[in-house]
Specification:
Blueprint: E1 2-4, H1 8-19, E2 25-27, E3 43-44, H2 53-70, E4 79-87, H3 90-105, E5 110-114, H4 115-121, E6 131-140, H5 143-153, E7 157-159, E8 164-170, E9 173-179, E10 182-185, E11 189-191, E12 207-217, E13 231-233, H6 234-240, E14 257-260, E15 266-269, H7 283-296, E16 305-316, E17 322-325, E18 332-336, H8 342-357
Length: about 375
């Protein structure tokens, strides 16, 4: 079994496949977690998910993380916490109340905070904050640490700096993985290569890179702001498409999340840009995020910025991940296009891929993610 891609989805699939009895080799053109997994914010969160299949799957994915902790697989790698979605005006409050209702309908515990209760829980928020929804039973997991834990548990081989250029096939089945070092036999293949998945498919323009920029502060002191969990502006729901934009909100292209890290630092982010310039951090975007962060929590202004970086997410044409069988080969599957939801969904998707590949019925309904909706086929040259 060949898994192409050593991010959180590919490594999770390798873990569960090896425990199901497969002899698994993971191939990556770089090193483990060198793509989106390594530059993600680590949110295992339902708070920003769009109502429908993604929200339902995210609820199940959070519970799956809890199971992995209980069984010892991800012990100490998953931190349970709440997310606080904050409204700063009445228009945002309408968005917040609508989204909170949809989260509750999906079985997510919500606590609405206003007035004195709001200040008591997140007093570091600006006085302009008029309400917050505490989205409970969420968590945080550092993507590269999750992947490293799976690597340490072993059971499968990893081929780093080994680019897969294509596949050998016979009678409608893939028989080998072609690399610069030669062709190696494979009785099944899972593509978990993010944006790179398009190299192997006949379709074009289906997956595009979506850039995100993040800011890291220095460690907060005793007099610095302290939050019991990340603060998320309602505008983030609009920027991600989780909620429809009203007149004033529609012009806001950047969302905002202020995330207190275990190190005492803060991670500030929220940009979603259809640009392919991974190495560039844009001063105008960073300045806007910082202004918005200080507006939401004024005491952040006393902290220094020690790092700004960007990364690329794999975004699909319809905003939904792609998981399932690829036409043109009986033994080829794909799991890609998770954009900003890879850390949250990754371990569970790896498990569901293992079930599909083993001929079992996935324990979660992923029909909305089925690759068949695009009629994906293997590229002739691959």
């Amino acid at each position: 079994m060949a898994v192409v891609g050593a991010g959180i989805v590919g490594m999770s699939a390798a873990h569960f496949l090896s425990r199901a009895g497969w002899q698994v080799t993971v191939y990556d053109a770089g090193v483990v977690a060198s793509g989106a997994t390594g530059s993600a914010d680590g949110a295992v969160s339902v708070a920003s998910k769009k109502p429908g299949p993604l929200m339902t799957l995210a609820v199940a994915a959070v519970k799956f993380y809890e199971q992995l902790v209980a069984t010892g697989i991800l012990v100490d790698e998953y931190l349970p916490r709440s997310t606080f979605v904050v409204a700063s005006d009445h228009e945002e409050l309408a968005v917040l109340e609508r989204h909170a209702g949809e989260l509750e309908a999906a079985g997510v515990p919500i606590r609405m905070l206003k007035g004195a209760a709001l200040m008591a829980v997140i007093g570091a928020a600006a006085p302009t904050a008029i309400a917050a929804a505490e989205v409970q039973r969420e968590g945080h997991a550092v993507g590269y640490r999750v992947v490293e834990r799976l690597r340490q548990l072993g059971g499968f081989a990893i081929r780093r700096n080994c680019r897969v250029s294509g596949f050998e096939s016979s009678n409608g089945c893939i028989t080998g993985v072609m690399t610069e070092q030669g062709t190696e036999p494979a009785d099944a293949v899972l593509l978990a290569t993010g944006i790179g998945s398009m190299h192997f498919l006949a379709e074009s323009g289906l997956i595009r890179p979506r850039k995100g920029q993040l800011i890291v502060t220095d460690r907060a002191g005793a007099d610095s702001p302290h939050f019991p969990g990340p603060l998320m502006s309602c505008r983030y729901l609009v920027s991600k498409g989780s909620q429809p934009a009203d007149s004033a909100v529609a012009s806001r292209s950047l969302g905002l999340v202020i995330d207190p890290l275990r190190t005492g630092q803060f991670l500030i982010g929220g940009s979603r840009e259809d640009r392919d310039d991974r190495e560039t951090a844009d001063a105008d975007v960073v300045a806007t995020l910082l202004r918005d962060a200080v507006a939401l929590s004024p005491s952040l202004a006393q902290l220094r910025i020690i790092r700004v970086f960007s990364g690329l997410r794999a975004a699909t044409r319809d905003g939904m991940p792609i998981v399932g069988h690829v036409g043109g080969a009986e033994n080829l599957w794909i799991a890609t296009g998770f954009e900003g939801d890879g850390i949250c969904l990754g371990p569970m998707i790896g498990r569901l891929c293992q079930q599909m590949i083993c001929g079992e019925s996935p324990e979660q309904d992923i029909s909305a993610l089925d690759a068949a909706r695009f009629g994906l086929t293997l590229a002739a040259a691959a």
